[in-house]
Amino acid sequence: MNRNYLVILSSVFLLTCLTAKLNAAEVLEEETTPKYLGAAQKKAYEKAEVTKKGKLYKTKYFFGALQGYDNNVYLDSQRKEDTFSEGIFDAKLTYPLSGRWNVFGGVGVHDITYWEVTDASLVDTDLKFGFEGKLFGTAVLTALNDIEIVEYPYNENGSYVGNKAGLRLKHRLPKTLLPGTYFQSFGYEYFYKNYSDRKASDGAGRKSLDDRVDKRHTLDTEFGVYFKKAMLKFSGNYYFNDANDKYFSYYDYQSHRIGMSFIYLVTDKMTTLFSVGHQRKHYIHRITRVDNTKLETDKIFMIGGSLMYEIYKNTSLGLNYTYRENDSNDPIQEYSGSVTSLGVYCNF
Amino acid sequence: MARAKYLIFGLIVGISFLNPDFVSAQSSSREAEVILVKGEVKVQKACKAEWLDSKAGMRLSEGDTVKTGKASMLEIAFDLERKNVVRLYENTTAILRGRWLREIGLPQGRVRFLIRRLRSDSSFEVRTPTAVAGVRGSGGEVESEEKRDEIKAFEDEIFVQSFDEQGNLIQEITITEGWETVIERFQAPGELMELTDADRSDWDSWKEDLSERREMERPPVEEEKGPDIGGAESVSETTQQQSEYKDQVFETQEDSRVEDRAASGETSGRGDVTEGGTPPPPSGDGCGCP
Predict the structure, then answer these.
(1) Same domain, yes or no, for A27 and A68?
(2) CA distance B170 to chain A (A)
(3) How far is CA A77 from CA A74, A86, A334, in A?
(4) How near does any CA of chain A get to the CA of B14, in Å?
């Protein structure tokens, strides 16, 4: 037994000495031989670079806490109004893979709690990850996958688990050529939604055994310009929603949306936002209830405005107002409603 | 109507060109920007007597003189993307020359340059008292001492001209990548010598460092916006998201409408309706009216 210990101890000692000797030899050679001088410098440089890169994680956080008033919660003719509380949390972490490519991931939780009309209360949880890379010049390609769980705690019909996967190419034109910084982007997104507590209807309007599933293909584009104190953006969006609900293919429709938004820094602390949009939904098979020879078409008009005031560094107070109105060729679908809210936002 | 369109277009273009950003963007190509300062570096603006402390971000233009002290260093970028960069080492005096800053006068000291973006018909030159080293897109180094100049070509080729006391050209040679030459004052360029491993390694390190700093100092694309409106954009996105939630709530309510329609006997005509066309009257007892 003792002999074994001796052998092990001797081996460890010998190995230690050998390693130390090898290390000493390496250092000596690098320090004294001009041949290795460059390599040693390079190695030291690379080591410094690795240390530097370790600090390149970038994080972004966004918090919001709001209190608001909705004058038509269900967007119908009954016009049920209610107050609500809203909480938003978003976190994003970006890690550079190389000089050109980044990998990023993020989580987001968005909660809206209506005080009385609780059917509309929801919790939206997002888990995002993707890659972004500079392709050429100032073009950035982003590949994104977003797993989304939307839960309506008091109305399970609306709850779903979704997965978005998409590509976006954003291009910024050099400032040297044009006033301001112009940008444009094009994107495609596939959105799969599974309503786990809602069954699809068959052709007669009876509930089938299958969960309702929606598949949405979206193409969108944006272009705009950043000025010294403002940003103007135009956007266009087309999507086709393909659901497995068979009754009048109730949820199969094409949507076209155009919009414009404008952000202006009034002072160093005050910012205004204004947005306007128009969306048309053309249902593929759903007929109107007043004229069974016509397919339903909804024309939705949206307008919104916000006034934000920075109360502390990275913390702002915001007053928001949005109005939307649906002018449908099926009167039962027509509505108008507005949401007003006041909140605190933190962004860092 | 057509005239009005042209008028609006003309106005937009006119306003764009009047924008101060545009004017400064045009003039910025004739300026260089200080991107790195270490130690004591002074700048004397053209036609001015006083020497100013150099700072990162400082703009330099034609006729400006830069002087670096002991253990000091300065880097200047000649374009926004920092593809054309010059580094001035310690105890160097350099003067920016030329309308487009394509020339550096080097009475004394050592400069290193990496020139990647030049118009095809132009060149970048470093002039010592008796020699000129020029490139049309490459990397090199010029060191001007009291009695001699040393010129190294790290990338591509550098043309070198040496002059006598009267300013007459003695000889012009081209140094290819990996070689260097020494020119004694008022003599022809000496024999070519191969660059050492340490030289090459030093050059590679500098290039990598430049590239890394370019990436680090350049704000992420989303932040290159001019105004800091990141918070406002987040709020805008949140509002958009809220609109989608409203869509969802509205759609959830539609489910009860489906049940109402089915209960009233209205049956789906799916399969019989052609897209974009007129659907046939629904079968069954339902009239299709509420």
Answers:
(1) no
(2) 36
(3) 9, 25, 8
(4) 11
Q: Which residues of B touch A181 (CB under 8 A)?
A: 224-226
A174 CB within 8 Å of a chain B CB: yes
Angle at A237 between CA A233 and CA A240, to 5 degrees: 170
* pLDDT attached to residue B217: 62
Q: Which residue of B has its CA nearest to A271?
A: B232
| Residues of chain A with C-beta less than 8 angstroms from the C-beta of B263 | 205
Tell whether A167 and A283 lie within a shared domain.
yes
Whole-prediction pTM value?
0.59
Residue A51 lies in a domain: no
Domains contained in chain B, number? 1
Residue A340 belongs to a domain:
yes
* B219 shares contact with chain A (CB less than 8 Å): no
Q: Which domain holds residue B84?
A: 28-223
* Residue recorded with tokens 């509002």: B239
Residues lower than pLDDT 50 in chain A: 1, 6-7, 11-38, 40-41, 44-45, 47-55
What CATH number is attached to the domain comprising B165? 2.60.120.1440
- Are residues A91 and A236 both part of a single domain? yes
Residues paired with A151 in a beta bridge: A123
Instruction: HSE, CB side, 13 Å, CA atoms: give it for residue A192.
Output: 7
For residue B249, what is the enclosing H or E element?
A: helix B230-263
B282 found inside a domain: no
Note whether B257 contacts A: Cβ–Cβ < 8 A: yes
- CATH code of the domain covering residue A337: 2.40.160.40
Range of the domain at A128: 57-347
Give the residue on B whose Cα is nearest the Cα of A50: B212
pLDDT, tens digit (0-9, with 9 covering 90-100), for B88-145: 999 999 999 887 778 899 988 999 998 877 766 678 889 898 888 888 778 899 999 8
Cα separation, A169 vs A143, in Å, equals 9
Q: What is the pLDDT of residues B143-202, one digit of tens each?
A: 998 888 999 999 888 889 888 888 888 888 888 888 899 999 888 898 888 888 888 888
